Amino acid sequence: MFYSIVRGIIRIIVYILNGKPEVQSREVVPKDENYILASPHRTWLDPVFLALAASPEQFSFMAKKELFKNPLLRRLIMKMNAFPVDRKNPGPSAIKTPVKILKEGKLGLVIFPTGSRHSSELKGGTLTIAKLSGKPIVPAVYSGPTTFKELLQRKKAVVRFGEPLVVERRARLNDETAKQYGDLLQSRFDTIDKEIAQQ
To answer: What is the pLDDT of residue 121?
Structure first.
């Protein structure tokens, strides 16, 4: 309930400041199960536009542990289904927590496979979570404002989804297979980027 209310308020604010975002290829998103929504992390606005584009699905979010230091912010983001992750030293909970959430079936998971806005290297956690949870990875790319200034300038915002990727439960994620799946996911990001750029 709280998640839906906050998302609704954010949607109104975004529409007023920037107009209605364009959502593309929504038909490829699973309709009968929760899923992992994976995207390159390029701006603090990524999770906002992804959550709006994937509505009415509700999501949990991995968030850096530093965001939980402020008591008021911690309370707010936990109500928005966020959970802390130590990006420098991720422990077992970085995998166990999202897998448990996904298996419960009520929430999807928004995840940025590179881990931060300052990295372009795909980490293996996304694939492991997909394998253990049995949930598909839906690649998505956000293109649009990257700063609050650009948001006010009403720069066009687009979210485009790609074909889901399934990591087989029986797959052994050794270096070779992890690279194969990682390359496949990256290629889907690249394809979506090109499709947006060609418009």
So the answer is: 58
**CA separation, residue 15 to residues 5, 24, 141, 158, 178 (Å):** 16, 17, 19, 13, 39
Instruction: Please tell me the distance from the alpha carbon of residue 123 to that of residue 118, in angstroms, as a whole number.
Output: 13
Q: Which of 197, 77, 191 is nearest to 140 (CA)?
A: 191
**DSSP state at residue 170:** T
Residue 176: what pLDDT? 87
Name residue 116's beta-bridge partners.
Answer: none
**Structural contact between residues 151 and 18, judged by C-beta atoms closer than 8 angstroms:** yes
Task: Identify whether the C-beta of residue 42 lies closer than 8 Å to the C-beta of residue 117.
Answer: yes
What letter does residue 165 receive in the DSSP assignment? B
pLDDT of residue 166: 93
Q: Which residues of the chain have pLDDT under 70?
A: 115-123
Peptide bond just before 136 cis, omega within 30 deg: no
Contact 59, 6 (CB under 8 A): no
Strands (E), 115-175: 137-143, 158-161
